[in-house]
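Team,

Forwarding the record for the chain on the shared tracking sheet. I've put the sequence and predicted structure together so nobody has to dig through attachments.
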Amino acid sequence: MMMKKISLVGITLALCAAFLWGTAGTAQSFVQGATAPYWIGAFRLLVACFFFHVLFFYRRVSQQLPNINKQQVSELSTVATTYWLHIVVAGICMGLYNLTFFAGIKTTGIAIGTATTIGSAPIWAGLMQAVILKKPPSLHWWLGTFCATAGGTWMVLSQSSRWQINTKGLLICLSAGFCYALYTLMSKKLVSIASPLIITKHTFSVAIFIAVPIAWILAGTPTVSWVSVAVILYLGLLTTGVAYLLYTQALKHISAPTGVALGLIEPIVAFFLAIVVAHENVNMLALVGLCLILAGLWLVLKSEGQQKA
């Protein structure tokens, strides 16, 4: 019974993170000027990294936050090596995810690009857990994931009146989904060594050294307006900083594939915000996708409960 309660905590935290991610698209629609998408991705990583460092300093000063498990690190050098190896991989994946996602949607279009990235990430995560950890997800998990993925894909594509199929763009978006899944798998391993705040602080510090130089090469000198600054602060603090802190905390209680699959709640949030905030004309056929997502996530949660029981 206790294990099921712990799993519920992780599920709630992951859903909160997904809710915040779902607001990113609506917020980004308010960006004005010639701010390149690559720079939006890089800037939000910079803001999130600054947030993690400030929060770490505050909690360190107030003595509310322990260091990395120094006793383990001093006794077993392999722990420190494993920690930093996973941090570097996770940081590279986070930096590349931001760049490949924006590059993908620029090449193949927002609808196809978003659907490919969001839809492929849970499948990548399930395959990685099966191959790397030798713990293949259950049949319920796979059925739920494919159902939710189909629903999320339908919701995104039903909102687009024009589909642009581009093989190169699809491959880039599949790479983005792969990077996100691998980031989650690395973070899942890291939560047994250090606290979520320390993990995100180090991971995003690595990520900005990937994202910023590449954004400069691809987009040149950034141009931003005051409205863009406000949006970037929101994206960095809430949809990235707070969201990934919650998400990393959630991984202490749930499996990596389930964490990625729960991110499929994001298109549902974006769907309702598009109606309420952006006043967009929404295709009601997207409700079919919404039902598929909810049915799929129910199967995923049922699988997670069975594994924790």
